[in-house]
Amino acid sequence: MGGLLNIGTRALLANQLALQTAGNNVANVNTAGYSRQSVLLQSVEGQFTGAGYYGNGVEAATVLRNHSDYLTRQAALTGSVSAADSKRLDMLKRLEDLFPGGTDGLGAAMGDLLNAFSDVASAPSDLTARTTVLARADELASRFTATASRLSSMQQGVQNELRTTADSINGLATRIARANQQIANEQGSGHTPNDLLDQRDELLKQLGALVQTTNIAAGDGSVSVFLAGSQPLVLGQTVAPVAITTDEFGDPGKSKLTITRGGIPVVLDEAALGGGALSGLLRFQNTDLVDAGNLLGRMALALGTRMNEQQQLGLDLNGVAGGALFSLGAMPGVLPANANTGTAVVQVAVQTTPSSGATSLRASDYEMTFASATTGTIRRVSDGQVTSFSAVPAQIDGLDLQVSGVAAAGDRFLVTPFRQAASSIGLAFGSPRALAMASPVAASAGTINQGTLTLQSLLPQQANVNLNQTVTLTFTGAGNFNVAGTGTGNPSGVAYGPGQTISYNGWALTLKGTPQVGDTFTVQVNAYPSTNGGNAEAMLALRDAPMFDGAPATDGYASLMTQIGVKVQGAGFSASVSQSIATHTEADRAAVSGVNLDEEAARLLQFQQAYQASAKMLQVAQTVFDTLMQNLAR
């Protein structure tokens, strides 16, 4: 009789625990990181009798956690990659919004300014037309500075978000270390602390969304967490904090992640960080945002410098040589590496000799490495192309790198020529009379010419000490002419064709028509600057002149928008693919560990019936016992 009562009692208790576990699953169906649990039931060892072994019922051995280490790791890994791609895509979309098209964009402002010179070329003394040019120039400068300000604000926002993310990583790492301690303490009970393991896995998942990790389990139940492949963030119950710092050049526009162990900070390789929102932010800040800033700054510096050069070639309404149209801030100092040992200081400027470098500028930073005091290499960061230099100053892509002091072998410098160009550009003067729209030289045909030669255009092109020297072209036939004048070299028999450009002493002359023998054309100092719009025509010609990587000025902004748009498109594709993979991997993990309400409802019914049957067993045992006692009493 006692055996039946014991069996019923054990069955009742075991099924009660099974019901309780199923109910706990239902209650936690929406709890993040919760893994479905189930009671492991096992038979109680049977009792030997002369008639054989008779069972002693059932008991609950432990509570199992339905969990796959492999799927959990894969879900965390793919989620980490997806987080990085999604974060970068989100930031790139915000960046794209800073460069609108249409009438609100920089391209329209550039086009409006260059087109405004056509009215001045037609009416050089018209102050209204000149005022319009100044208004267009001021609007262009304002759009440059406004866009640069928004880029700067975005840079500060990214920097703040990086620091906040690093703090979150440290907080999660501390909680994981604490969970390690609790789990190690509970391991001695002989049963797995399921809820603690779930909590730690959820913390690891949250950490993976911020930065990709590698996790290695230890024998005591703790988990060691590594960043960038091998740098320990959590070792058992010890945490190595991370922080955001500048790179080896102290560049304020770029950031690095460091991890400190034993009081020594170690810079983590950005390429080795893998996924996580922090990785996406670092890539956006250190690459995408820098590229956009360089494109914008190059545009402001190249256009401003080239228009200043052209303005300074002309004469204003008072017959005075023109000054700069735009004020351009000083180019930023070149940043030395922290490990430099020499005394060298490097300065960068736009190349002026043998010709202007304004149209040769490339939208990139540069890394200058010295092999000796005067030799070394310059690496263009945007594409990795390396150029050697054998003397200083060195020139590259329209830039002049001046060196003072003495560089030591191995010294490195970061050249960031475009960082401040867009934020510092402004209109240099406000008087329309100061616009130097007249050419310093004028062309006239000989009074006794017999042919049909006429002037098509005469444009000052570049500064030249002989620009104002008189030059005479004397035609010896329909297809040849001789040149006489200081600075020309006085060549003879120069081939001529209608519409061809004839260039000497910094000006470009274009004639049309057919000359006769003895016809002449003379270029000399312009005696009537108030009625001449030759330099306005030269300004207008800048619309189609190669300016940005061989493209004309009017196409520069469209190229900038295209480059950013291509990045957004590529990032969108990557984010879509990684999100799809992460979703499917998480679904596979949830299929093993997640709670299915239909299954749990069926289990509740199953264990409820078993519980009721166990109770019925006890009731039958009580009835049998009562009947036996009544019979014994008789």
Give structural notes.
- By secondary structure, this protein is an alpha+beta fold.
- Among the domains are: 2-66 and 594-633, no CATH class; 441-525, no CATH class.
- Helices cover 44% and strands 22% of the residues.
- Strand 15 (366-370) and strand 16 form a beta hairpin.
- Helix 3 packs antiparallel against helix 9.
- The longest helix is centred in the first third of the chain and has 60 residues, at 127-186.
- It is elongated.
- The two termini are 20 Å apart.
- The mean pLDDT is 90.
Give descriptors for this structure.
elongated, alpha+beta, 5-stranded antiparallel sheet, 634 residues, 44% helix
Distance between the termini: 20 Å
Total count of strands: 31
The major pleated sheet works out as:
5 strands, antiparallel
Q: Helix- and strand-based class?
A: alpha+beta
Unreliable spans are none
Please tally the helical runs, counting DSSP H or I stretches of 4 or more residues: 10
- Taking all Cα atoms into account, the compactness measure Rg is 40 Å
Strand order of the largest sheet: 13-20-15-16-17
Q: What percent strand? A: 15-25%
Question: Layout of SSEs?
Answer:
Layout: H1 2-27, E1 37-43, E2 47-49, E3 52-54, E4 58-65, H2 69-97, H3 106-122, H4 127-186, H5 194-210, E5 213-217, E6 223-227, E7 231-235, E8 238-239, E9 242-245, E10 256-261, E11 264-267, H6 277-313, E12 326-327, E13 335-336, E14 345-350, E15 366-370, E16 376-380, E17 386-389, E18 394-396, E19 399-404, E20 412-415, H7 421-424, E21 426-427, E22 441-445, E23 454-460, E24 471-477, E25 480-484, E26 494-495, E27 501-504, E28 507-512, E29 520-525, H8 534-541, E30 546-548, E31 551-552, H9 553-593, H10 597-633
Antiparallel strand pairs: 1-4, 2-3, 5-6, 6-7, 7-8, 9-10, 10-11, 12-21, 13-20, 14-19, 15-16, 15-20, 16-17, 18-19, 22-29, 23-28, 24-25, 24-29, 25-26, 27-28, 30-31
